[in-house]
């Protein structure tokens, strides 16, 4: 909200500089820890092993090409795409399986389940509902999949294959 108000733009920059200066000491310590960790990890291999194989170079978290921050940016688009496919009945079994897999991974990532505000039971229930959608062929009777199945049946029917 500060970026929309010109008088608060300087305040935002001041806060950023303050946080950067406060975190500089901690970042230096983290860098030292990472260097020690890397050297300890690389010292495990014997010289013969290092000659036979290329040395493993561990990457610092959030510096790899694909990490959690990249995946976190993709999740909303995945949710929207799967949701729209289910809403319009397009590629329903595939979308339902994708949704069930995602919801099951959310449930398993917070295992064991607990009651209360942190509960993941509703993700498990939604995953089961998506498996029912995928298993029953719900898209063939309503939605855009109905029209896709009409076209497939018309051009790939057994009568046309014999002729």
Keywords for this entry:
membrane; 163 residues; 7 helices; transmembrane; transmembrane helix; 69% helix; mainly alpha
Q: Can you give me a brief rundown of this structure?
A:
Keywords: Membrane, Transmembrane, Transmembrane helix. This protein has 163 residues and is mainly α.
If you had to describe this structure to a student in words, what would you say it looks like?
- By secondary structure, the chain is mainly alpha-helical.
- It has 2 domains: 51 residues; 95 residues.
- Helix content is 69%, strand content 0%.
- The protein is built from 7 helices and no strands.
- It is extended and about 70 Å long.
- The mean pLDDT is 84.
Supply the helix-strand structural class.
Answer: mainly alpha
Q: What would you report as the Rg, rounded to the nearest angstrom? A: 26 Å
Distance between the termini: 68 Å
Q: H/E series, N to C?
A: HHHHHHH
Count of strand segments: 0
Query: How many domains would you count in the coordinates?
Result: 2
Model regions low in confidence, pLDDT < 50 over at least 5 residues:
none
């Amino acid at each position: 909200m500060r970026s929309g108000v010109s008088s608060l733009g300087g305040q935002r920059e001041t806060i950023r500089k303050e946080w950067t200066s406060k975190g500089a000491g901690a970042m230096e310590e983290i860098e030292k820890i990472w260097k020690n960790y890397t050297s300890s990890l690389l010292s495990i291999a014997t010289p013969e092993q290092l000659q036979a194989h290329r040395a493993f170079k561990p990457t610092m978290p959030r510096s790899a090409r694909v990490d959690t921050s990249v995946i976190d940016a993709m999740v909303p688009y995945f949710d929207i795409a799967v949701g729209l496919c289910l809403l319009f009945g397009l590629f329903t079994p595939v979308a339902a399986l994708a949704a069930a897999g995602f919801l099951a991974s959310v449930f398993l990532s917070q295992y064991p389940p607990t009651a209360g505000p942190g509960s993941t039971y509703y993700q498990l229930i939604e995953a089961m509902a998506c498996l029912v959608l995928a298993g029953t062929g719900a898209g063939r009777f309503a939605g855009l999949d109905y029209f896709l199945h009409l076209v497939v049946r018309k051009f790939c029917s057994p009568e046309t294959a014999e002729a």
